[in-house]
Amino acid sequence: MKTVNELIQDELIRHAVGLDGYSNNVVSRILAILNRSDRRMFAELIEALADVDPLTFKAERLASMLASVRAIITAGAAEAGAKLLDELREFVDYETAYLHQMLLANTPAAVHVAAVSVNAVYAAAMSRPFQGVLLKEVWKDVADQKMKLVRQATAQGYLEGKTTDQIIRELRGTKAKGFTDGLVQKSWRDVEAVVRTALGHTAGNAQDGFYEKNADVIKGLKWSSTLDLRTTPQCRIRDGKLYTPDTHKPMGHEIPWGAGPGRLHWRCRSAGYGAPV
Questions:
Q1: What is the CB-side half-sphere exposure of residue 242 using CA atoms within 13 A?
Q2: Which residue from 160, 135, 148, 140 is spatially nearest to 184, judged by alpha carbons?
Q3: Rg (CA), the chain
Q4: What number of CA atoms fall less than 13 Å from residue 134's CA on the CB side?
Q5: pLDDT digits (tens, 9 = 90+) for 95-137
Q6: What ranges in the chain are assigned the alpha helix state H?
Q7: Is the dihedral of CA 232, 237, 243, 246 positive or negative?
Q8: Residue 172: how many other CB atoms lie within 10 Å
Q9: Shortest CA distance to 241 belongs to which of 227, 255, 262, 261?
Q10: Which end of the chain is more exposed for a tag (fewer CB within 10 A), N or C?
Q11: CB under 8 Å to 11, separation ≥6 — which residues?
């Protein structure tokens, strides 16, 4: 018969698999917003460059020429950011309720399981930096990086004697490859990293708040890393290690908690499991 610790670990592994699928869905919804924004951006870029004479092109004029393009990129990033905040708020509601019910279901009836404030968890996730930035600031960086890419590709293209069509193709990619070979795809990969890391960051804050509230029941947190070819060295060395539920001090080893599972690095897939005994 499995122990309480084994039952909880099995359940949380199942939950982690479900969260991975949920993360994929959120990424798809955010990228759909940016895909629509990119279509508007390319239409505006084509119009902005329609009257450019490659022979008299001056890079100094790019900022004014591409002002409308910047506005579209900024608006698209803002819409994506607002959508992600909505998703995270709903996710906090679900995750805090799940953790409470999960521990109730796997501990004796006499054990008191404390609930954690949804508002407190959400506020903590929004106020604590992940990978050195606040969530509300990261979308400005995404927009700035995409605009920089468009500006540089346009300037370099004209300096090399490329046509507008060639510059657009370089940025957007080719239809034959589903537009997956364009320079703009790099910004999409950055967005995917932001979304997955933001979800891991928010889940980690929910777990931190819940396990701290129940430190009298949870005696330790076990770090569990996904061990495959994509596992980073810093996650691999923490796999299976125990930490205190409130202060995250190492238990029986000296490897620090760092930012915590799911938050240690971009796209971190590690998780932390509460062990009652």
A1: 11
A2: 148
A3: 23
A4: 8
A5: 999 999 998 888 888 888 999 999 999 999 999 988 888 888 8
A6: 4-49, 62-65, 67-105, 118-127, 135-159, 164-172, 185-213, 233-236
A7: negative
A8: 19
A9: 255
A10: N
A11: 102, 106
